[in-house]
From TrEMBL, chain A:
One of its GO terms (cellular component) is membrane. Residues 135-424 form the NADH:quinone oxidoreductase/Mrp antiporter transmembrane domain. PANTHER family: NADH-UBIQUINONE OXIDOREDUCTASE CHAIN 5 (PTHR42829:SF2). It comes from Flavobacterium fryxellicola. GO terms for biological process: ATP synthesis coupled electron transport; electron transport coupled proton transport. This is NADH-quinone oxidoreductase subunit L. Keywords: Membrane, Transmembrane, Transmembrane helix. Residues 68-118 form the NADH-Ubiquinone oxidoreductase (complex I) chain 5 N-terminal domain.
TrEMBL record, chain B:
GO terms for biological process: ATP synthesis coupled electron transport. The chain crosses the membrane at residues 12-30, 35-55, 67-90. It catalyses: a quinone + NADH + 5 H(+)(in) = a quinol + NAD(+) + 4 H(+)(out). GO terms for cellular component: NADH dehydrogenase complex; plasma membrane. This is NADH-quinone oxidoreductase subunit K. Its main location: membrane. NDH-1 shuttles electrons from NADH, via FMN and iron-sulfur (Fe-S) centers, to quinones in the respiratory chain. The immediate electron acceptor for the enzyme in this species is believed to be a menaquinone. Couples the redox reaction to proton translocation (for every two electrons transferred, four hydrogen ions are translocated across the cytoplasmic membrane), and thus conserves the redox energy in a proton gradient. NDH-1 shuttles electrons from NADH, via FMN and iron-sulfur (Fe-S) centers, to quinones in the respiratory chain. The immediate electron acceptor for the enzyme in this species is believed to be ubiquinone. Couples the redox reaction to proton translocation (for every two electrons transferred, four hydrogen ions are translocated across the cytoplasmic membrane), and thus conserves the redox energy in a proton gradient. NDH-1 is composed of 14 different subunits. Subunits NuoA, H, J, K, L, M, N constitute the membrane sector of the complex. Belongs to the complex I subunit 4L family. It is an enzyme of class 7 (translocase).
UniProtKB/TrEMBL annotation, chain C:
The chain crosses the membrane at residues 6-21, 28-47, 67-91, 103-122, 128-148, 160-180, 200-220, 232-254, 266-287, 294-313, 325-343, 364-385, 397-417, 438-457. It is found in: Endomembrane system; Membrane. GO terms for molecular function: NADH dehydrogenase (ubiquinone) activity; NADH dehydrogenase activity; ubiquinone binding. Residues 122-407 form the NADH:quinone oxidoreductase/Mrp antiporter transmembrane domain. This is NADH-quinone oxidoreductase subunit M. Its main location: membrane. It comes from Flavobacterium fryxellicola. It comes from the Bacteria. The keyword Phosphoprotein does not apply. It is a multi-pass membrane protein.
Length: 627, 106, 480
């Protein structure tokens, strides 16, 4: 029963993929979209069954289907592990996934390749489910790489534009850099413990007394690099902003809510490993905090509505990594969930705006959309309040907990994270004010067509806005359902204390005031002063550095991409030719010897005879001398 | 044992044979006329034949003499063929100087 | 029933194809190659039931040469690769018209015969004969039916022929030397020799030269790209899909067990050479303008990794190498076939002259993309199983080997996706590109099906090859 339902959970989106690939074009756009959505909805429904099943069976459900890969000292099964962590992820992957599928039916309706879009999206959900429910690192890796492939396909969905294709390629390759790290981590774990199974690893690591700490740290660090790639942390974050080339619902699903959280999922899954390597944990915390700050500063000055959201995503993911690094996995997971709600809402809202403006993404050409698009505005406002940490919205609870944990561990990290949060509040409201307030700055043609999007678009927005409002309830300070739920995965939660003292209240107040200050600055600048960001050419000073994203892309280009290309040209033109000439050199040498030898044979009998006699004399004298 | 070798030592035959052979060699190397080269080869052959016969007597073994007959027969055949070739060369080139015969050149 | 049946079918097929005449040649060839594939599957079944399917007969008494065809799991796996790929390759050529096609198809079957013989032979000299025999048909296939300028083609093909032949001669010398010692060419007798370390080094190097040129490892690869480019696609498929694997197979079967001390002593150098090939091949592939040349260099990178895996002398390394050999055989045939499909329509192999094909051809694009991702070893494809196992074995030797070898994951994705982007994506091409015909589709789908099936369920192949690899490892570790 469990096996069959797990297969249903996994294969429903895959069947949707197959259907859309083979028959999608024939059945028409709407039906193709409906079937795609249904496929994910089936998985969503099945998840509820497992939610119930696990409530009755806290140790989780383990299913092994068949033996997959065989290594000399262990075997890897193709199996599933459904426990609290995977079910939690499944809930929002399939739940938000269904909503975004629904949204896409309307959003992508004008695209000639809509059936392919749904096929890829279904395939993505299939791989994401594989990632989440894999019972060992390698099955997880199938999903891990699979979602990377789907991300490639969807970023480059409009494949006639080579810039989009470049972005897709970049995303895939940068992910693969991380994947190499992940593989190295897998190799070391396999070498140390002769298993890749999560459950067995857990017992092996928790029970062992004489662990090789050096290799364990290397493994943890390598795995963290993998997480960096997938979750867009420094130094592998530059693909995520470029990934905005894909359709907006894709950005919402893959590049905000689900795929980019895979790194956090993996680290949480292996918390027993990371807990033993404090050095690596410190690195994770620092990388997370720095990423949060750097991405937030870049987000301050971006003018592309999706780019702002992309950098905001990187920044929020940085906060989650900060929490992971401090050992507060449950807080990171909490923020993953609330972030999924409000960021998906924001992306879908921006999609609604872009849809209404026929592809316009530059906020300098927007403004005043509040009246034309009231529902989009309201939902985005709620989501912005949530991400800014305004009390009672979901983001307030999760972000506050991260700051709290940071404060208890390390004051400098707390300061960095707080600054990043203030900036978040600022740029989110900058976005909101520039888009929805003041006068419309676009063309008259666009203005004429302004309209609220269809209900297929607004319903997911409303649902997500609702979740972004109440999502915080799952983990209220002092009485956290989430922490209790995750206790089997994170054993130390059982002993953790939940009480709120004066310090906590003061910190909360500081965070709230910080958020409000950020909003206030944005209000003062963009509403009171009615400022509009200047044209590209007019940006100067430090904002120019920020606007150009600290020139990191150019930097990577100069130190990695171009040298490799130069090397490639050098190898192709010089080394290959040289080696080839060397081999031909042997042939030429033989030819030359033969050519010279030919000259001796000039046909003169006298010479031949002379040589003959000379040879004879030589032989005779040798025979004499030899005696 | 009573034979000619008791009167004239074997070494004399060897010297004579070597001298003859060398004359033949030098003749082959220095003369350009094909007929003289040919004659020089015959001298070398006969030098060897002489040695065969001398050692045949020395060892009291008839095999050497048998071999000489064989070699004389071959030499005769060779002369017949060789002269025929020379005649045909003369007809074609109008001379029998061996320097003109460079068609073997690779 | 024994393995000589396969060789007989292929040889008879070659003659029958030649006699059948130009019109029927391709169909007769397909029939016989399918018969060989069927027969080898039946034989595999017999083998799995534990029957003896080897064929060993005295052939020449002085010197002592046997006609010994021994089938163990490793040989059977390679035999299956040959007999299954051959009909696919022949079928893939159905869209093309060849002049004098009876000779063409007869040569293909003859080559399959020689390669199958190489994989089966367990007598040194017999093996050598098959090894050299396989060179003759590919020489003519590339020379007569190849493309491009005739003079340049001749230059490339003659270079290839002489180069590989020269390398093999060293192997012959090694065999003669071993025969002097053992008095027999049979592999079992050669295993029993107790050679000194110095002798082993020479034997090892002599074999190495032959195999390094055939595989090819850098810096012995200079023949490869040109021949791949100039040969007709069928020839390229035979070369890259099967013939390269002869070299890799021989490393495992002959070189390592015959000179284990040298193999252990200089292991790091040869692993390093393989990995250098991975990186070098990948980087050179980045800037290739010709699709077939790019695939040739990608092949160089992949076989470098396989060779590195073999030289680790661990069960994982050998197993991963064999798995990857089979996987690479299929994927590379598929990729060259896509190059051919594009060539049939656009008459070009230059990437810059392609582009914008995707918009017109959903089926072809999907099939091509699947092959691309299989070639970059996406998990759930067969290539991942092989690459993972090989990299794992490298990490056991030294983690840096795994990291450096693992760059193939990154660089491979880089050049393959770049190639895909240049060839397929972008503004819709103005020239018409008809989607795959049913013949082309079937060929590609067959290959893809194999890749995915064994990617998810490689157990049958693993179970087939593991016992014989363990036996080889026992031989490798016999002197300690």
């Amino acid at each position: 029963m469990n096996t069959n339902l797990a297969l249903l959970l996994l294969l429903a989106p895959f069947l949707g993929f197959l259907f859309n690939i083979f028959f999608g074009l024939r059945v028409g756009k709407t039906l193709s979209g409906i079937i795609g959505t249904m496929a994910v909805a089936v998985s969503f429904a099945t998840t509820f069954y497992f939610f119930g099943a696990i409530a009755a069976k806290p140790e989780g459900i383990h299913i092994s289907l068949f033996e997959w890969i065989q290594i000399s000292n262990f075997k890897v099964d193709f199996g599933f592990q459904l426990d609290q962590l995977s079910v939690l992820w499944l809930l929002f992957v399939t739940g938000i996934g269904s909503l975004i599928h629904l949204y896409s039916i309307s959003y992508m309706h004008d695209d000639e390749n809509m059936h392919k879009y749904f096929a890829y999206l279904n395939l993505f959900v299939f791989f994401m489910i594989t990632l989440v429910i894999g019972s060992n690192l390698l099955v997880m890796f199938i999903g891990w790489e699979g979602v990377g492939l789907c991300s490639y396909l969807l970023i480059g969905f409009w494949h006639k534009n080579q810039e989009f294709n470049d972005a897709a390629k970049k995303a895939f390759i940068m992910n693969r850099i991380g994947d190499l790290g992940l593989l190295i981590g897998i190799f070391i774990l396999g070498m140390l413990f002769s298993t890749l199974d999560f459950a067995t690893l857990k017992t092996a690591i928790s029970g062992a007394t004489d662990l090789n700490m050096y290799w364990l740290s290397v493994a943890a660090f390598a795995l963290f690099i993998g997480a960096c790639g997938k979750s867009a942390q420094i130094p592998l974050y530059t693909w995520l902003p470029d990934a905005m080339a894909g359709p907006t619902p894709v950005s919402a699903l893959i590049h905000a809510a689900t795929m980019v959280t895979a790194g956090i999922f993996m680290i949480t899954r292996l918390n027993f490993l990371f807990d033993l390597t404090p050095g690596v944990q410190n690195i994770i915390a620092i990388v997370g905090a720095v990423t949060a700050l750097v991405a937030a500063t870049i987000g301050l000055v971006q003018n592309d509505i999706k780019k702002v959201l992309a950098y905001s995503t990187v920044s929020q993911l940085g906060l989650m990594f900060l929490a992971l690094g401090l050992g507060a996995y449950e807080v990171a997971v909490f923020h993953v969930i609330t972030h999924a709600f409000f960021k998906a809402c924001l992306f879908l809202g921006s999609g609604s705006v872009i849809h209404a403006l026929h592809g316009e993404q530059d906020m300098r050409n927007m403004g005043g959309l509040k009246k034309a698009m009231p529902i989009t505005f309201a939902t985005m406002l709620i989501a912005s309040l949530a991400i800014s940490g305004v009390p009672l919205f979901s983001g307030f609870f999760s972000k506050d907990e991260i700051l709290l944990v940071a404060f208890h561990h390390n004051i400098p990290l707390w300061i960095v994270a707080s600054v990043a949060s203030i900036m978040t509040a600022f740029y989110m409201f900058r976005l909101l004010f520039l888009t929805f307030f003041q006068e419309f700055r676009g063309t008259a043609e666009q203005k004429h067509h302004l309209h609220e999007s269809s209900s297929l678009i607004t319903i997911p927005l409303i649902v997500l806005a609702f979740l972004a409002t109440v999502g915080g309830l799952i983990s209220l300070p002092g009485n956290s359902w989430l922490n209790e739920y995750l206790t089997p995965i994170l054993p130390k939660l059982a002993t953790a204390e939940h009480h709120l003292g004066t310090t906590e209240y003061i910190l909360m107040a500081i965070a709230v005031v910080g958020g409000l200050v950020g909003i206030g600055i944005a209000y003062a600048k963009y509403i009171k002063q009615n400022a509009v960001p200047s044209e590209d050419a007019a940006i100067t000073g430090f904002s120019k550095v920020l606007y150009n994203k600290y020139y990191v892309d150019e930097f990577y280009d100069a130190i990695f991409v171009r040298p490799i290309n130069i090397l490639s040209r050098f190898f192709r033109d010089t080394v290959e030719t040289g080696l080839s000439a060397l081999v031909f050199g042997f042939g030429k040498l033989t030819n030359e010897i033969s050519y010279q030898g030919k000259k001796v044979q000039n046909g003169s009998i006298g010479l031949y005879l002379f040589a003959f006699v000379l040879g004879l004399c030589a032989m005779v004298s040798y025979l004499f001398l030899a005696q | 044992m009573n034979n000619i070798l008791n009167h004239i030592g074997i070494e004399n035959y060897i010297f004579l044979s070597v001298i003859l052979f060398c004359i033949g060699v030098f003749g082959v190397l220095y003369r350009r006329n094909a007929i003289i080269v040919f004659m020089s080869i015959e001298i070398m052959l006969n030098a060897v034949n002489l040695l065969f016969v001398a050692f045949s007597t020395y060892h009291q073994d008839a095999q050497g003499q048998v071999f000489v007959f064989f070699s004389m027969a071959v030499a005769a055949a060779e002369v017949a063929v060789g002269l025929a070739i020379l005649v045909s060369i003369f007809r074609n080139l109008g001379s029998i100087t061996i320097d003109n015969l460079k068609n073997l050149k690779g | 029933m024994n393995v000589s049946l396969i060789l007989i079918i292929l040889l008879v097929g070659a003659f029958a194809t030649f006699l059948a005449g130009d019109k029927l040649a391709s169909k007769v060839a397909l029939f016989f190659s399918l018969a060989a594939a069927g027969a080898s599957i039946v034989l595999l079944n017999h083998y799995n039931l534990g029957e003896n399917i080897s064929f060993i007969n005295q052939w020449i008494t002085q010197p002592n040469i046997s006609f010994a065809l021994k089938a163990d799991g490793l040989s059977m796996a390679m035999l299956l690769l040959t007999t299954v790929l051959t009909p696919i390759i022949i079928f893939s050529s159905f869209g093309n018209q060849y002049k004098n096609s009876k000779s063409f198809y007869a040569l293909i079957l003859f080559m399959a015969f020689a390669m199958a013989g190489t994989f089966l032979a367990s007598d040194g000299l017999l093996y050598y004969i098959f090894w050299e025999l396989s060179l003759i048909p590919i020489y003519f296939i590339a020379l007569v039916w190849g493309n491009g300028d005739a003079e340049e083609r001749k230059k490339a093909v003659v270079k290839f022929f002489i180069y590989t032949l020269a390398g093999s001669l060293f192997m012959l010398v090694a065999f003669v030397y071993l025969y002097q010692k053992a008095g027999s060419f049979l592999i079992e007798d050669l295993y029993k020799l107790n050679l000194s370390a110095a002798e082993q080094l020479w034997v090892f190097l002599a074999f190495f030269l032959a195999y390094a040129i055939k595989i090819p490892l850098i810096p012995f690869h200079t023949w490869q790209a040109n021949v791949y480019q100039k040969a007709p696609t069928v020839g390229t498929m035979l070369l890259s899909g099967i013939m390269l694997k002869m070299g890799l197979y021989s490393v495992i079967r002959w070189q390592l067990p015959l000179a284990p001390l040298a193999a252990k002593e200089y292991m790091y150098i040869f692993i390093g050479l393989g990995i250098a090939g991975v990186i070098y091949g990948s980087i050179v592939a980045l800037k290739q303008k010709d699709l077939k040349k790019l695939l040739a260099y990608s092949s160089l990178a992949h076989v470098g990794l396989i060779a590195a895996g073999s030289y680790t002398l661990t069960l994982d390394g050998l197993r991963g190498a064999v798995l990857q050999m089979i996987a690479h055989g299929f994927v590379v045939v598929g990729l060259f076939y896509t190059a051919e499909i594009i060539f049939r329509r656009y008459e070009t192999r230059v990437l810059a002259e392609m582009g914008g094909i995707r918009a017109r051809t959903p089926k072809f694009t999907s099939l091509f993309l699947i092959l691309v991702v299989a070639s970059v070893a996406l998990p759930s494809t067969f290539n991942f199983v092989g690459e993972f196992t090989v990299l794992y074995s490298l990490s056991q030797i030294n983690i840096w080997f795994a990291i450096l070898g693992g760059t193939t994951i990154i660089l491979g994705a880089y050049y393959m996706l770049k190639m895909f982007q240049q060839a397929m994506l972008g503004e819709t091409n103005t020239r018409i590109f008809t989607d795959v015909t049913s013949n082309e589709g079937i060929t590609l789908i067959l290959i893809i099906a194999v890749l995915f099936f064994f990617g998810m369920y490689p157990k049958p192949i693993i179970d087939l090859i593991t016992p014989s690899l363990e036996e080889i490892l026992i031989q490798i570790n016999r002197i300690n």
